UniProtKB/TrEMBL annotation:
Family matches, as PANTHER family: GLYCOGEN DEBRANCHING ENZYME
Keyword tRNA processing annotated: no
Single Gene Ontology BP annotation: glycogen catabolic process
Keywords: Glycosidase, Hydrolase, Transit peptide
NCBIfam families referenced in this protein's UniProt entry, alphabetically: glgX_debranch
Name the record gives this protein: Glycogen operon protein GlgX homolog
Originating species: Sellimonas catena
Domain Glycosyl hydrolase family 13 catalytic: 170-580
Family to which this protein belongs: Belongs to the glycosyl hydrolase 13 family.
Single GO term (MF): amylo-alpha-1,6-glucosidase activity
InterPro entries in alphabetical order: GH, GH13_cat_dom, Glyco_hydro_13_N, Glyco_hydro_b, Glycogen_debranch_GlgX, Ig-like_fold, Ig_E-set
The keyword Transit peptide is assigned to this record: yes
Transmembrane segments: none
Length: 703
């Protein structure tokens, strides 16, 4: 029997064949990277193409020195894979790491050093990271723990929400509940987020998108600025792709890491809410030549990273290195990683940070049909999960509307953000671009191709201004980040409504509220999948910081007391989310039904007349169709005036037995929203106020 036949043999029948450093061992499961628990032992498997030898280090929990060093015999290596079963190990009593030897030729990308302690690339849990704000001892390296895979999912079912019905809510696990105003028992944790599920249900979002929850070291670049400790708070520098960030757990989870995250996902699913992960496969926390050796540099630096001909790191990520995603070894790791999160954690989808990097060749050039993106698109395990690309990178590659998709990938629509920000604040010459964005960006996603389901529409996300700040600041105020206000984008397309920053001026505050209501009304009445940043629904502020990646403090923590202060905005957002859910004509094409209207059409002040005035600030979009499920005629007219003067608007004619009614009027100081039974009828002509939105629905006249 050969070593490769071991996977066919019940593990309880496996017997030791050798003794190394006092432990009984035998060749292991070469096809199972990482660790596998078997009765009476643990299998360890790693791979390295250029290493000449490999040692397994076993530590008692938190010990400085290993209690055992087991060198893999040559007979425990097949090809480039080392595999060994070690008997007599209790997973609760040890941590592990590796040391590899091999050539040191940096100009060829080879950086082997047999003194460096390396983390298993497939580690399911990383030690020394569970206490937020405590610095890991770098000289001891990173170590891994073996994790039990015995979580009980019960009769769990995933929500499986279509893209057209999805409403995404982006949040940071720690910042969501860390502020005392959150009122949770376990602030800043997965458990704290579980406590907020009733709030998510009240708000009405269908899907939460978690900023990075893979293990990262928040202390990586910690520094002190004016007595404020700055950390790698956002977490976009992954240490391990397979391990959850244990500092987000409310309790220690030795050898059951990830349990609280699984409990969060199970609780969300039980309430019909999807969970999407924001994943970072474009770079790692190892940085460039000056960065630490954590894992990949020591296993096969020349494979895992894109390198220049002289061995330096390409930096298309802006973070020091670029993962070599389309190398078969790296591609296989990423595929295994995503399959692991889907099967072990039941994740509903992934948003890929700087996803254009995933389509670059080993020399950095863009590929027409990147094998990784294609493999993800057609993978069977990933067949029902959402794949969402941030379709650009820090190297200048911008692929919004052209990201390689195989009709499978959706995209963060950066053009929606930029065009709609400009239009809503009153910029001229934006009328036609805004119409395209509201109608699902058919210029980017033609109906005969991916269609509007490929467009994730957003005005705000973790990058850039939050919604309150979008209408409170003309320029960024990132001085607190310590880079002399040089970091963060300058292209904010924001407007402070007359006063920079905080103010007590009631007129300015009223205008800002109206601008935020306009933004939500348009976002939630746009074809495509809407997404917004947590806290925007109640006017949370970052005080003008448009890049608070390092701010682990009230700048980034949600201030839940603002719900009461900004109750009108909060109620408006809830209403608009419910309105979108009630009206399928906004979300998808429906048959014409009783009217001859097209499913979507673009209008100006006068319906059905081409908008030839490119300087116009009045845009109307008609959504219409017959909903067979509800057996109703669903017709909505979205009217937007971004000018500083009101206009007289003419509504489309209707058959006699039908009439337009007002559902939303952000320009009405007495009432912005009208419940279904309260909607006042509209005349053929309506005054559309300055910088305001009116939303009309068709109802039958009462007899």
């Amino acid at each position: 029997m050969t070593c490769s036949d071991l996977t066919l043999v019940p593990s309880s029948h496996l017997k030791p064949l050798d003794v190394i450093s006092g432990f009984q061992v035998r060749p292991g499961f070469f096809l199972s990277p990482g660790t596998t628990v078997i009765p009476g032992g643990v299998n360890f498997t790693i791979q390295s193409q250029a290493a000449t030898s490999c040692e397994l280090l076993l530590y008692h929990r938190e010990a400085e020195e290993p209690f055992a060093v087991l060198k893999f015999p040559e007979t425990y290596r097949i090809g480039f894979v080392y595999s060994m079963i070690v008997f007599g190990l209790d997973i609760e009593e040890f941590e592990y790491a590796y040391r590899l030897d091999g050539p040191y030729e940096p100009e060829k990308g080879l950086c082997f050093d047999k003194t460096r302690i390396l983390l298993d690339p497939y580690a399911k849990a990383v030690t020394g990271q569970s206490r937020w704000g405590c610095k890991n001892d770098q000289k001891h390296g990173y170590r891994a723990r073996v994790v039990r895979s015995n979580f009980d999912w019960g009769d769990h079912k995933q929500p499986m929400i279509s893209m057209s019905d999805t409403i995404i809510y982006e949040l940071h696990v720690r910042g969501f509940t860390k502020d005392p105003s959150s009122g949770v028992t376990h602030p800043g944790t997965f458990a704290g987020l579980i406590e907020k599920i009733p709030y998510l249900l009240e708000l009405g979002v269908t899907t939460i998108e978690l900023m990075p929850v893979f293990e990262f070291d928040e202390m990586r670049d910690c520094r002190l600025l004016d007595e404020n400790q700055l950390l790698d708070y956002w977490g976009y520098n992954p240490v391990s792709f397979f391990a959850p960030n244990t500092s987000y757990a409310s309790t220690s989870e030795y050898n059951r890491e990830g349990t609280e995250l699984k409990q969060l996902i199970r609780a969300c699913h039980a309430n019909g809410i999807e969970v999407i992960f924001d994943v970072v496969f474009n770079h790692t926390a190892e940085g460039d030549e000056r960065g630490p050796y954590i894992s990949f540099k020591g296993f096969d630096n020349q494979i895992y990273y894109m390198l220049t001909p002289d061995g330096h790191y390409y930096n298309f990520s802006g973070c020091g290195n670029t993962l070599n995603c389309n190398h078969p070894v790296v591609q296989n790791l990423i595929m295994n990683c995503l399959r692991y999160w889907v099967t072990e954690y039941r994740v509903d989808g992934f948003r890929f940070d700087l996803a254009s990097i995933l389509g670059r060749n080993e020399n950095g050039s863009p590929m027409n049909q990147p094998p990784l993106l294609q493999a993800l698109a057609f993978d069977s395990i990933l067949g029902n999960v959402k794949l969402i690309a941030e379709a650009w990178d820090a190297g200048g590659l911008y692929q919004v509307g052209s990201f390689p998709s195989w009709n499978r990938w959706a995209e963060w629509n950066g053009k929606y953000r930029d065009d709609m920000r400009r239009f809503l604040k009153g910029d001229t010459f934006m009328i036609h671009a805004a119409a395209q964005r509201i109608m699902g960006s058919p210029d980017l996603y033609p109906p005969e191709g991916r269609g509007s389901n490929a467009s994730v529409n957003f005005l705000t996300c973790h990058d850039g201004f939050c919604l309150n700040d979008l209408y409170s600041y003309n320029t960024k105020h990132n001085e607190g980040n310590g880079w002399s206000n040089a970091d963060g984008t300058n292209d904010n397309y924001s407007w402070n409504c007359g006063v920079e920053g905080e103010t007590d001026d009631p007129d300015v505050l009223s205008l800002r509220l109206r601008m935020m209501e306009n933004a939500f009304a348009v976002l939630l009445c746009s074809r495509g999948t809407p997404m917004f940043l947590s806290g925007d629904e109640f006017g949370d502020t970052r005080y003008g910081n448009n890049n608070p990646y390092c701010q682990d403090n009230p700048v980034s923590w949600l201030d839940w007391s603002l719900i009461e202060k900004n109750q009108n905005l909060f109620s408006f957002v809830k209403y608009m989310i419910a309105f979108r859910k009630r009206h399928p004509a906004i979300r998808t094409d429906l048959p014409a039904g009783r009217f001859s209207f097209p499913s979507m059409s673009f209008h100006g002040i006068h319906p059905w007349e081409p908008v030839s005035d490119l300087e116009s600030h009045v845009l109307c979009v008609l959504f219409s169709g017959f909903d067979k499920e509800q057996q109703i005629q669903d017709t909505i007219y979205l009217a937007i005036n971004t000018h500083w003067e009101p206009v007289t608007l003419f509504l489309p004619d209707l058959p006699f037995e039908w009439n337009w009614h007002i559902a939303v009027n952000t320009g009405d100081p007495s009432r912005t929203i009208f419940q279904d039974t309260e909607m006042p009828p509209a005349d053929h002509t309506v005054l559309l106020g300055e910088r305001s939105v009116i939303l009309f629905v068709v109802k039958k006249r009462s007899v």
